[in-house]
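Worked Example 4.2. Consider the chain below.
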Amino acid sequence: MTATTGPPPPPPEAGDDAVRLAAALVEVDSVNPGLVPGAPGEGEVVALLSARLTAAGFATSIVTPPGRPDRPSLVAISPGGGGGPTVALTGHLDTVGTEGMDEPFAARIEGDRLHGRGACDMKGGVAALVVAAEHLARRADPVRVVLALVADEEDLSLGTEAVLDALPGLGVRPDVALVAEPTWLARTTSLRGYALVEVVLRGRAAHSSQPAQGVNAVAHLGRLLAAVEARGRETAAGGGSLLVTVAGGGESPFVLAQQARAVLERRTVPGERAADALAEAQALVDGLRRDDPDVDARLTLLVAREAWRLDVDGPAADLAAALEHALGDACPADPFAAPYWMEAPLWQAAGVPALVCGPAGGGLHAADEWVDLRQVRAFTAAVVDAVTAWGAAARAH
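Applying the procedure from the previous section yields the following C-alpha cells:
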C-alpha cells in the first residue's frame, strides 16, 4: 500500500497558465477614470474574468458601488467547500495612467519579465490568484475560495468597500483575506496609513499698491507651508510624514489674494489614527492665528485610511506562515514594512484578518512597469499549497 502524503502539488503548467492570463489582463485597458477622466475603468477586464470563472464552475457576481454601475468588481465563489473554512483572495483590477508609455497594453515578454501597465501593480498577482483558485476548486479542496477582484484601489477603494458590503448578502463570511499586492513575495508586516486635509485660507482683496487695505491669503499660505515643513520633520522621527502636495492661490498680479489653498498629506504608522490629521492641521492653523488674527481658514478631511499591522496570531498569521513555507527560498528573508497603503486595513476593519503578499518586479506607476514571471509562477503554486495546508489546520481545530 502506498503511503499518502497529502494532495498533489499543482502541475507545472499552472504557473504558465498564470503567465498567459497576466499577459491577457495587461492587454486590457483598465485605467482608473477617477485618476484619468474618460478612462475605461474595469468593465472589460471584469467581463473577461467573469466569463472564465463562470466556465470553471464558480458562482460569479458583479458588484458595483451605489450609483456607479460603471465601476464593477467581481466576486467569484468556488463550488463546494461550504462547510469548511473560507479564504478571500483579493486584488485590484484598475491601473494608474499611461503617460510616458509608448505601448502600455502590448504585454511584451522579455525573458522572465512581462512589461506593460498593470503588470506589477497588480495584474500579475491577480492572475496568480485566479489560477490558484481554479486549481483549488478542481481538486475539490474543502476550503471555500472567494475571489474578490475589485475596482478603484488606485483612487478611493470604492470596489473593496462595495464588495465588503455585498458579501453577507452572498452568504460569504471569509475567515481570512490574502491581498496579493506586489511585495516581492515577502511577508508584509505593516502598512502606513494616510490622510489628506484641505486647507482653504481666506483673505480680502485689495490693490497691491495699498496692501494695508486687504488681507493676503497667499502670505498666510507661505507661513502655513513653513509650519507644515517644521512639523513634518518632527513627524518623520516617529516613522510618519507630513507635507504639502498641492498649493496655490491668487487671481491677479496686482490684487491681494482673496483665497489660497493647500492639501496636506499625513502618513501614519500603526498606533496612530489617520483622522487625527485634521486636528494636527488645525493646531498648525491655530498657531498661525495666534501670530496673526487675520488668518481665516476652513479645513476639510478629504480621506483617511488607517495604518495596519499583521496579526501575531490567528488566521492571518497562520496563512502567512503557510505561504512563507510554501514559497521556500523564493520568499525573501527580510519581511516587508510597506511605506504606503494597501487595502488590507479595510478587510481587517470589516472583521476579516488580512495578510499581504504577492509577486512584483519594477516600475510601479512608472513608464517601464514589469512583473517578474518567476515570482508569478512561484506565487501561484504557493497559494495552492498554503491555502490547502491552512485549511487542513483550520479544520483540525
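The radius of gyration is 24 Å. The chain has a mean pLDDT of 95. Compare this with Example 4.1 before moving on.
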